[in-house]
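Sample intake — 5-methylthioadenosine/S-adenosylhomocysteine deaminase
Collected from: Paenibacillus phyllosphaerae
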Amino acid sequence: MNRLWIENGIFVTMDEQQPVVKGHMVVENDRIIYIGEAAPQPEPEQAERLNGQGLLFMPGLINTHAHSAMSLLRGYSDDEALQVWLEQKMWPMEGRYTDEDAHWGNSLAALEMLKSGTTTFVDMYDRMPILAKVVEQSGLRGVLTRGVIGLCSPEEQTAKLEEAKQFAKEWNNQADGRIRTMLSPHAPYTCPPDYIERIVAAAHELDLPLHIHMSESAAEVQQNVNDYGTRPVEHLDKLGFFSRPSLVAHAVHLNDEEIALMAARGVAVSHNPASNLKLASGVARVPALLAAGVTVSLGTDSAASNNNLDVFDEIRLAALIHKGVSGDPTAVPAIEALRMGTVYGARAIWQEDQLGVLKSGMKADFIAIDIDQPHFYPQTDMISHLVYSGSGRDVKHVWIDGRQVVKSGTCLLLDEEKIKAESQRSFERLLGR
Ligand SMILES: N[C@@H](CCSC[C@H]1O[C@@H](n2cnc3c(=O)[nH]cnc32)[C@H](O)[C@@H]1O)C(=O)O
Ligand SMILES: [Zn+2]
């Protein structure tokens, strides 16, 4: 039995009932068992005690769209349009990856995510067993899916789908339940309709959710209309995609009918503001999506189009850019942006009953921010400070499933120096291959 009793802390809970608590939190094994202003009664026995003075505690951040292994390609191709970046820069480099490269890219991402306060992430890529092992070791929580590109022979399509199914079956609920799995056609423009239908059928067979890149650029939407006579949302709907719980990344170019259809089907969105700005894909219609009742969460996309994995950046961008493009300073208020990185993230991966809120009975996935720094003074509205002044660099401690994984900025379960050195060597080998 492990017990942790935090005293004297400020807790930004994301719980509508008591949004900010100054006081105590008690964790037993993987769960929060108490949070409140008064000291817990009776006093927890044999608990490790932590003085929360100078710390702000909040739910761990949830990154709902990433490609961890691509961390090795950070800074390799900047300032290009999506299709050029993807087809001419990323794919050739990814084609040269070995298992070892994937391991170091994934480890680098795990290190960066943990240290900047992400406790759960969604990842779509290949060589997924390698990432699953990194998740297992690092203590992270992940929703993992072997993404498949269908621009290949029917035999290769089948082999990729089988690999994706196998991975999903083998790893679902592994790592003490911290790993969940999904299936994912990469995008409507990289998977022919009949292949998407086969993937949807497999998701029904295995009872899994689906993930996909959708309506990221205007060119992609136009191509979908030219090739299939419909825009991507209707196209996927006709293929049965939304008959499964689904999470779509980007969703930048949507019309009102598409937003209404997504709301009706319960489709969740991973909004990736930094990646969309950098690739000049456009700005997603987040206020309209939220108004329609669509769950909007936040993702970094990969470090090759971001170029970091700091979800605080996405929170801040989400709170800023929609004001800028709409001319309405009340668009996406701070608290709503913070929800997108926590509660709505949990909802987008169908784990809102467990994650995203600090409340008795929830999983003990939480982070401690060092607020004894100039940019957090005067200590007034801490939600405003987190969104508009904070960053992942302010994260001091991280717990996942009640286990401390980052202590005073150091990852307890990963070898930081080795990961940095091996990532550097992997990248140099990739360049020379
Ligand atoms: N290599 C696999 C597919 C891996 S899915 C992950 C893919 O998503 C690509 N990717 C990363 N970010 C984006 C994005 O924003 N839009 C579209 N594709 C992306 C990434 O380069 C990678 O090729 C196959 O051949 O089946
Ligand atoms: Zn992506």
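Post-analysis note: The domain at 3-59+361-411 is CATH 2.30.40.10 (Urease, subunit C; domain 1).
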